[in-house]
Write a structure and sequence with these properties.
heterodimer; A: 261 residues; mainly alpha; Ferritin; 10 helices; 65% helix; disordered N terminus; B: 169 residues; alpha/beta; 2 domains; 4-stranded mixed beta sheet; 7 strands; elongated
Chain lengths: 261, 169
């Protein structure tokens, strides 16, 4: 890693770099989790769907990391950001690192995250940073397609058999505690909102809640009642799942630095 | 102020060369049909930059397309060739040419509707997809996803053939 005088990088560039990393980390970690479900899908069509989701997320992560690396200007590239950072340096939300569990839990995680992420991307289309706005426009189309699929499964399982309903409800109940962090506004989010670069999470939250509620009614699911919310992912404090995930993801570059196809 | 000089005749040639290369995943389509070659700049030193729009964020064909364009231009006497990713305006299926749509259909892939911005087309609500082989409207969707990020899977209930539909995105 090149070391260069920190002061050469101006402060707002560091903020923008960190903001882009969060977006890239969410996409990378969720893409990796989805990739791990390949070979374990409930049916062939869902294998294809989950693999397609994973591919889109990895592609989006590359775009966010590529822009972040360019802004940082320290000679790191997208691969360095993905493979050569430790768990504490990852700033994805806890929700995306949660394991796939059964298919209902996978759907619950995808539904909670994608319904949030789509709103976030729509807001980012108007970002003052034009490159970020371009990435958001591109990613938004893809996530809209995912979300429709995920929501159909939420309804199909929730309003399905006694067993599928039980599992779908268990899935959303289990992951509910990770939804609070999606809307937590810390100093970095505040900076991004004030600079016209980032999405206003408070605004998004209202729309998100309304959409979740209506989907749950259609799926005959109960809104989870828990008020305690987990947090810390955005600041680098993760659940135990991230370490295992990174061990898989980063093994090759750690064991054989610089290995290429 | 220095003005960068461009060789317009060379740019036209380079654009045509890049445009006639086949798409790696659907080789009946050229990159020109697909609408991914956006612009070409040739400097007075014979150095080329080609603006290429990626189709889907994670599509593995993107890098293959870039390297095939670079190779083709180098083989045709251009000097240093670089590819630049162009994200704006965003590539949508509306960029596929009319000729490209006909080629897709003849190849057995139902071409996308030409209205990628409409939500209705994105999710294909209320639109009948005719079988590209027998023309029957009696078709059903097998999966919203398919063998590549750009396609979904269908089957014809009249002639029983499976076929693919190019997602409108």
């Amino acid at each position: 890693m090149t070391t260069r005088n920190q002061s050469s990088c101006d402060e707002s560039e560091m903020e923008l770099f960190s903001y882009l990393l969060r977006l890239g980390d969410n996409a990378l970690i969720l893409g990796q989790q989805l990739g791990a479900s390949v070979g374990k899908g409930p049916e062939l069509e869902e294998e294809m769907a989950l693999a397609n989701f994973a591919l889109d997320y990895i592609g989006q992560a590359r775009l966010f990391f590529g822009l972040a690396a360019e802004i940082e200007g320290k000679g790191r590239n997208e691969d360095d950001l993905a493979f050569l950072r430790d768990g504490i340096d990852f700033t994805n939300v806890l929700l995306v690192e949660q394991p796939n569990g059964d298919f209902a839990q996978t759907i619950a995680r995808q539904f909670f995250f994608e319904s949030f992420y789509l709103l976030q991307l729509r807001a980012l289309r108007h970002s003052e940073n034009s490159k970020l706005a371009e990435i958001a426009a591109k990613a938004g189309k893809e996530i809209q397609y995912h979300l429709r699929h995920t929501q159909q499964w939420l309804v199909r399982l929730g309003d399905g058999t006694v067993e599928s309903h039980r599992r779908m409800q268990a899935g959303v109940d289990r992951l509910w505690q990770y939804t609070g962090e999606l809307f937590e506004i810390d100093d970095l989010d505040r900076w991004a909102i004030d600079a016209g670069i980032g999405a206003d999470l408070a605004e998004i939250r209202q729309t998100w809640l309304a959409e979740i509620k209506s989907a749950f009614v259609e799926a005959t699911l109960e809104m989870p009642a828990g008020e305690w919310m987990a947090g810390g992912g955005k600041q680098g404090r993760h659940s135990e799942h991230l370490g295992y995930l990174l061990a898989d993801l980063q093994f090759l570059q750690r064991a054989y630095p610089g290995a290429a196809w | 102020m220095t003005v960068e000089t461009h060789d317009l005749a060379a740019e036209t040639i380079a654009f045509a060369l890049a445009s006639k290369l086949p798409d790696p995943e659907i080789p009946v389509l050229t990159l020109g049909d697909l609408g991914v070659i956006r612009w070409v700049k040739v400097s007075s030193e014979n150095n080329v930059t080609v603006g290429i729009a990626p189709t889907y964020s994670g599509c593995p064909a993107t890098e293959f397309i870039e390297s095939s364009v670079i190779e083709e231009l180098k083989n045709n006497g251009f000097g240093d060739v670089q590819a630049e990713r162009v994200l704006s305006p965003t590539w949508t299926t509306d960029w596929i040419s009319d000729e490209g749509r006909l080629k897709l259909h003849d190849y057995g892939i139902v071409p996308p509707d030409k209205a990628a911005e409409s939500k209705r087309a994105l999710f294909h609500r209320g639109l009948d997809i005719a079988c590209p082989r027998c023309g029957s409207q009696q078709t059903s969707k097998v999966s919203e996803f398919g063998s590549t990020p750009c396609k979904s899977s269908y089957k014809c209930t009249a002639c029983l053939e499976p076929f693919e539909y190019f997602k409108c995105l």
